[in-house]
Amino acid sequence: MSDRADQGRSAKARRILLASIHDVGPRFESEVDQLVDRVEAHVGTGRFAMLVVPDHWGEAPLSESPAFAARLRRWADNGVEMFLHGWSHRDDSAHADARAAWKAKHMTAGEGEFLGLSEAEATRRLRAGRAVVEDAIGRPVAGFIAPAWLYGPGAHAAVRHEHFPLAEDHMQVWDPASGDVLARGPVITWASRSRARIRSSLAFAALARFALQPLRTVRLAVHPGDAHVPALLRSIDATFTAFSGRQAAHYSDLLGPQGGRVRGEVG
Fold first, then answer.
1. CA gap 21, 222 in Å, rounded
2. Please, what's the largest Cα pairwise distance for the chain?
C-alpha cells in the first residue's frame, strides 16, 4: 500500500483535529503572528492551515508585499497548508435571491465574497487569486475555502471546474471534483465584531467542547479579530485543550489516493 493510501486510511480511522487561521495577509500581519504562536503552542509547528486572502478589501495586495510573501513561503516550507480564501473577502454582489440576501446580511459583515458571484466571475477571481498565492508559496494551494464559508451556485461550479483538491463550509469538508464529503460537523469559530457575537461564540465553543467529542474530525478556526479579545483567546485555548488528545492533522490527510467519502463521522 502506498504512503498516501496509508495516510488517507489512517486519517479516517483516528480522531483528528484540523486547525486553521483565516484572513491571512499583510493587512493582519501582527494578528497572524500572535495566532501562529498560539495555535502552534497547541498543535505543533506547521500542523495547521492558513487561509490566504490575495488582496483584503482591495487594500492589502499580497503581490505588492514581497516580505509577507516570503514569510508565507517559509510557513509553507515548515508544513503549513495554504488555502486560497477568496480574492478580496468583500461581498460586492447585488443579491436578488432572498435566501442569499439573508445570508449576506445576517451571517457575515459584508464579507461573503463568493455568495453572489456568477460562475464566470467566480472563476476569474479563483484563477487570479490562485496565481498570486501560488507564486508566493512556490507550490499548489491545498484547496479553496470561501470567505465566511459562503458559496453560491456559481462559486460551487467554479471551484469544481477549477480542480481544487479540497473545499470547506460551516458544516463539512468535501472533494469538489467528486462531491465526496470528507468530514462532517460544525466548525468551531469565534466572532469579535460585536459584544453579542462575542457572547454567542463563547457559548457555542463551550458547548462544542463537549458536544463534538464523538466526531472523528473536529475543526477549529481562528480569525485576526480574535487576537484583540482576551475572552476569546481564553476560549480558544480552552477549546484546543479540550481536544488535545486528538492528532493534529492536515486537511489533505482526509484524502486517500483517489479521495474518499466519510460515511459516518460519529464513533
1. 5
2. 52
Per residue in 203-260, pLDDT (tens digit) is 999 999 999 999 999 999 999 999 999 999 999 999 999 999 999 999 999 996 544 3
80/267 Cα distance (integer angstroms): 28
Task: With CA atoms as reference, report the closest residue to 49 among 67, 16, 22, 28.
Answer: 22
pTM: 0.87
Residues of the chain above pLDDT 90, percent? 77
Phi and psi of 161, rounded to 5°? -75, -25
What letter represents residue 153's amino acid? Answer: P
On the question of pLDDT at 265 being above 50, the answer is yes
Residue type, position 260, single letter: G
Q: Residue for cell digits 475543526?
A: 219
Q: Is residue 239 exposed (0-12), middle (13-18) or buried (19+ Cβ within 10 Å)? A: buried
Q: What is the DSSP string of the chain?
A: --HHHHHHHHHHHS-EEEEEEEEESGGGHHHHHHHHHHHHHHH-TT-SEEEE-SBGGGS-BGGG-HHHHHHHHHHHHTT-EEEE--SSS-------SHHHHHHHHHSSSS--TTSS--HHHHHHHHHHHHHHHHHHHTS--SEEE-GGG---HHHHHHHHHTT-S-EE-SSEEE-TTT--EEEESPPEE---SSHHHHHHHHHHHHHHHHHTTTBSEEEEEE-GGGGG-HHHHHHHHHHHHHTTTSEE--GGGG--BTB---S--B-
